[in-house]
Amino acid sequence: MQELNGKVAVITGGGSGIGRAMALAFAEEGMDIAIGDIESSSGETVAEEIRSMGRQSIAVTCDVTNLDSVRGLVEATKTGLGGIHVVCNNAGVVAGKPTPELSEADWSWVLDVDLNGVVNGVLAFLPELVAQNEGHFVNTASIAGLIPLAAPGVISYTTAKYGVVGITETLHEELRPLGIGASVLCPGVVNTRIGESARNRPKAAGGPPTEPIPAIELAPGTEMPRIVGANVQEPPAIAARVVEAVKANDLYIVTHPETREAVEDRFTAIMAAYDKLESSLNK
Ligand SMILES: NC(=O)c1ccc[n+]([C@@H]2O[C@H](COP(=O)([O-])OP(=O)(O)OC[C@H]3O[C@@H](n4cnc5c(N)ncnc54)[C@H](O)[C@@H]3O)[C@@H](O)[C@H]2O)c1
Prior knowledge:
Blueprint: E1 8-12, H1 17-28, E2 32-37, H2 40-51, E3 57-61, H3 67-81, E4 86-89, H4 104-132, E5 135-140, H5 154-175, E6 180-186, H6 224-229, H7 235-248, E7 252-254, H8 260-281
Parallel strand pairs: 1-2, 1-4, 2-3, 4-5, 5-6, 6-7
Bound molecules: nicotinamide-adenine-dinucleotide.
């Protein structure tokens, strides 16, 4: 979508971090913005920032794990801003415990927000974009959607984020003839409140913890601390890449150059499996 000026972007998890930065960057491009966030006050603060930039903005309390709630975001955006063009399925959380200690509730919470949240965004928004033969999805995955990260709690996150990459790759191909684009955002570490995700842990998953949550530590002895911990970026740098990618309909949005080698290593290992197959078939 080359021309963003005068159009409308919707951003889930837009009340903080990467979502907030995308909201501000799209507003800079002349877009009006709907923020959907489970934290009403954060969403309203960002909407106010955007209104002070001279653009229209609404904040809608939205839980991406609930399809009716996401459909409410669709309706509120149409009524409040008169249309929908760019949909950022961005809300995400991480649970920080070693894999053997992760409970069913830990798994469900992360898969519900990080994967089903994107599915709900596609279910709710796609009919609107198809009806107008115009629009673009930006789905926030992570570098953890391209390579597995060895860190406590990250297994459920990685599982969800690989799914987000898969959904977006499929949308990108299938929706192209309908005039709809799709990009998947795969950042390394960004300075946001993701480490405090448990502030939004639902009652069904035990609610927010009463004890402070230890910071997620990447497993020592693996390459991951070097690759992922090397360069913590600020959200506006990530948002700038997103704006470029929407204009160009780029499928993959990568942001951290130092993650390249690890992605190459994964594909080299997969290719090695094909080499092995070939040599065993030729025996
Ligand atoms: N920060 C990083 O290092 C990093 C790296 C790669 C990918 N990401 C991804 O970026 C996205 C944004 O995270 P962030 O780092 O800005 O974290 P953040 O915690 O600063 O922002 C996440 C936002 O999502 C909202 N949210 C949480 N649960 C929700 C729900 N059920 N429904 C609606 N909103 C909900 C929160 O209220 C918050 O405003 C996530 O998908 C995350 O996985 C983050």
